[in-house]
Amino acid sequence: MYCIIVRTQLKPGNRERFMAAMTENAAASVREEPGCHVFDVIEDRDTPDLFHLYEIYADEQALAAHKQTPHYKASREVVTPLIEVQSVIRADVVASHPRA
Prior knowledge:
Elements: E1 2-10, H1 15-32, E2 36-43, E3 50-57, H2 60-66, H3 70-79, E4 83-92
């Protein structure tokens, strides 16, 4: 499995717009994309307007397919102007322990 962790620092005052767009994108991704296994939106407790997206896909092709979906494209239109800085960690999942 393939994982990305996206660190997103928002411009101040954009939390609500970001959360509205990103929670819809995350829910649609898991619901509608067979290759998307996990899409968590995580808010940092210590740093205002800092979020992490934790996403697990079947493989890199599933992530590429995700980026072609209408919900991804719609969320990017909303969130891109809200972002101050963003970085991505790309990794392979070597162990996963989902709750059954």
